[in-house]
Specification:
six-stranded mixed β-sheet, 5 helices
Length: 155
């Protein structure tokens, strides 16, 4: 199953403001915690712990903050397009404006890396990135990601 099958229009935010990486992680943790019914601090701590290992910025203005959480909750994918790009400590030094947050249950360890890998393959396509940056509505983003998924993401 492509990770985009987990995504709904409610999981997509376009034009979100973020002052810096830290405040964005806090905002994303709050959104995710609400959807997962978990404490915000637990989600924030998991995302920050992963960032301490190294930036999850992929380059070309894209970041993929991710973490595994205890339990067997359903995986969560949030897509955020920032109103203004921020520094995310990317290797290519490009500021980030597209953020794909993935939270995955530890109970489903086998699905985690294939899901991230499939999403990353889809985001390598410059046309996909351009269209994501131009999308007007969350439903447009959803359709675009689902269209990109079958050809590039493993089942």
């Amino acid at each position: 199953m492509p990770i985009t099958d987990l995504l709904s229009a409610e999981d997509i935010a376009l034009g979100q403001a973020a002052g810096n990486k830290r405040s964005l992680i806090q905002d994303l943790a709050g959104q995710a915690a609400g959807r997962l019914g978990r404490p915000v601090e637990e989600v924030r701590a998991a995302l920050e712990a992963r960032e301490q290992l190294g930036s999850t910025a992929l380059g070309r203005g894209v970041a993929l903050p991710h973490a595994r959480l205890p339990g067997d909750d359903a995986p969560l994918l949030l897509v955020t397009r920032l109103a203004r790009a921020i520094d995310f400590e990317a290797r290519d030094e490009e500021p980030v404006d597209l953020v794909f947050t993935v939270l995955w249950p530890e109970a489903d360890a086998e699905g985690f890396l294939p899901a991230l890998s499939g999403l990353c393959r889809s985001l390598r396509n410059p046309q996909v990135l351009q269209r994501l940056r131009q999308a007007r509505e969350p439903t447009d983003v959803l359709a675009l990601l689902r269209q990109a998924a079958p050809a590039q993401m493993p089942e």
